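Example with several molecule types.
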Amino acid sequence: MIFDWVDVERKGHLSLEEFSSGLKNIFGSSQSSHRLRRRKPLPSKRVSATTSFPALEEADAEEKEAFLAFIEQLGTGHLLPKQTEIWQLWGQLRQEEPQLAGNLAGFLAKMTSRLQEAQADKEALELTLKKCDSDHHREVQQLYEEMEQQIRQEKQQLQAESDSRGLALTSQMQDVLEAKEREVQRLAEGQRELEAQLSHLRSTHQEAASENQQLWEAKRDLAGRLEEVQGQLQVTRGRLDAARGRVSWQMEEKLSVPGVGEKTPDPRAVSPEEAPLPGLFGDNDDWDQLLSNFGSPPHGALQLCWSPPPTPRAASGPQTPRVVRQISISEPQALLFGQEPSSDPDGAPRTPPGVPFSAKDSKGVDPEEQDISAEQPVEPHDLDPNQEPGSTPEGRLLWGLSGSLVAPAFKVLIPLEDGPPPPPQAPAGSSKQIQASDPDDKDPGSWAPPRGAQPGAGAGPRESTQTPPTMTEPETQPRPSPTTAFTGVGPAKPPRQRDTLQQNLHATGSEPRPGAQRALTLGPTEPFQGLEFVGPLPTERLEQGYTGPVVQEGLPEGLREAHGRVLGLGELPALPHQGLEEEPRSEEGKQEGRGEQDLSSEQSVEAHGLEAAHSQLPQQDYLLASLPSATPQAQVEAEAAAPGKPAPPRGSPPGGAQPGAGAGPKEPTRTPPTMAEQEAQPRPSLMTAHEEEQGPRHSREPRAESRLEDPGTDSREAGLTPSPGDPMAAGEPQANPDYLFHVIFLGDSNVGKTSFLHLLHQNSFATGLTATVGVDFRVKTLLVDNKCFVLQLWDTAGQERYHSMTRQLLRKADGVVLMYDITSQESFGHVRYWLDCLQDAGSDGVVILLLGNKMDCEEERQVSTEAGQQLARELGVSFGECSAALGHNILEPVVNLARSLRMQEEGLKGSLVEVTPKKQPKKFGCCS
Ligand SMILES: Nc1nc2c(ncn2[C@@H]2O[C@H](COP(=O)(O)OP(=O)(O)OP(=O)(O)O)[C@@H](O)[C@H]2O)c(=O)[nH]1
Ligand SMILES: [Mg+2]
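Resulting structure tokens for the full complex:
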């Protein structure tokens, strides 16, 4: 019924809300009550009764109890609306329609169950909702976690990628860095090598500079001697003028074998009959003057014979007539020489016209030689007035050659006039004669070939004069002596002399030259073509400054020998000898590596030889001249070694020398080197003596000893070994010490060796020193106990790469300063290593000083003084500590070392005296 009340629209079903609201409307609104009353009259009563129904609190206990029981019965007290409303409704219903009270109970129960169901549904829905919510929440959470996980993974992945990329980049960078580092190391290595090369080049340069200096000094010395000799020459000339005799010319014509020249037609070739006598032997009134220039003694008789020797192949050729002109000088005053009779009235040396004899033109020929040659009477232009001497290189060359060759020849001949000429059968050219083979003596046209080829006046005649030097040498003789050709004085021996001439010509030219070959064939077979020798001279050689090479290459030995003989004779031309001899020697020295010892020994022997020459001339001169291929040095050595011929005292005339004009004034030129000269030289004799005295160890030290004389130069880069030509070796006052010792500074790198030495020499501490490269040395002169000590202080490099170099040096050591750094235990520990090195080098008996440096760095000291002393005691060496920075204890150890060295030297001296009384102490002096 109530449903029907509530279901106003009669739908037959109601929702909970519709029912509740309908019920409320029914029971809450008066209208509904009215409507109920209208439909049912009773309800109007009930409304009035309701209004009179008391409130629950005011109701009597019975009704209230019944109501509560009713409500409790329903069991839905808490679900139903307010109890008051139910109370009123229940009261109203009991009043108005008590029969419905039961229905109300049922209705309420039903409604309660419905409410409970709705409540349950609600709770179920809430649970579902909660569950959905939780599910949703869980899903969201899960999703969130998944996303987070994914993000984390991606992050890790990115991180890993980044890390790997970083690692790759790092390794790549590392590789690049390593490559760069290697590159830097390589560059540093290259730089070090370059530095080493630079230092080597620097030392080489210094050596070359010192050699240059020596050469310059030698040149100056020679120039001085030249002037001196020129003065003597003038004196001699004056004497000769006074004693000028008659010169007669003898000519003889002979037939000679035709040479190859006939077979090889040459426009310049001249037949023997047509070929003119060289101008040298022409009818020239200046012969007298020419001879006078060379100091022929009074009443001298000169025979000049020139015969072109046959070439080897000429021997097989047909014989042709040969013209040999013999020239004899019997009256010196009778003849005048040269084309310049009035050009030099006083007989002073003069240069042939058109032949500049400057050093520049000489190109290698010693100026002295040029000067001498300029004075030579046998000049092309003298012989042939039509020629223009010296207008070509050949001309100059010939001038130089003729001068150098002819002059000695005349000089040699001069002494011979007093005695009989050497027998023809004398060994090696003793029988040689200066012969001039001239087909037609006065015909200038006969010289056409040379002149045609070379307009220079000197060409032809000089060639003729050049050839003689080689005349006497046997065919097998590779380097014939020109002097032998000149020295021979006696009757011409055509066949043999021609042969020798030919051979000598070959030797002169070394190889058969195109033109020379023809000249050589002139010999006995083609006598006149020999004169063409000059013309065909290869121009390229002349253009290359042939004058020098000719002397040194073409006729080296002969020239030297000739000069050597001239020297021995004591004649004026000693100068050319020196000039020529010394130059080739210097070249030989270069070719042989210029060992100092070699040089010194050479010079020593040379000096000796000079003296010996005095006593052996002229006989020995002749002999020497005839020596086949003796080099100047060999010759001098032979002279020096000749037994029973001691060198005469200085100034004394040479034994056997011809009394005459040249004897007196010539003496000075032949005196042995003076003291000053010896000092200027690397002191050969000194070194030789020392070598003999000092035994094996010291004999290795000639170079160092030569440095001894080093003047004030304190320090210089030495490279490895000093050279003899070192400017330091020049003589100086203090270069005459009482003692010379080699002291080597050893020790690790950075211990302060160089600083110590720098302080010792410069008296100041050097900052910013770089590590020593190779070896350096300084010379320190000390006056200790009134004795002059020269200490060669060798500063070695402590860096390991130079140790081998240092070891080589140790053999030289007289004393060793073994330095360590007191702030470096390592350097102290290496002291024994250095001692081992010393022992390995076999340097026994070396005076050793153990020196700890940098004692100013007391805070950083790692090696105590006691440790140093202890080690020194163990090793039995001296000990000291010093500071190069503060200058503490620098000189004292060196002085003590010098004293120790001296004591040791004295002890050695004593022991040596016991064994060999002749031994002398190691004392050095310019005169010792
Ligand atoms: N404090 C101090 N420093 C020093 C002294 N002597 C040298 N030195 C320093 O030590 C360093 C090496 O000195 P050097 O003289 O070049 O050493 P070294 O023994 O010649 O070295 P190498 O030539 O490589 O064998 C330099 O920096 C000097 O300034 C010293 O007495 N006291
Ligand atoms: Mg150093």
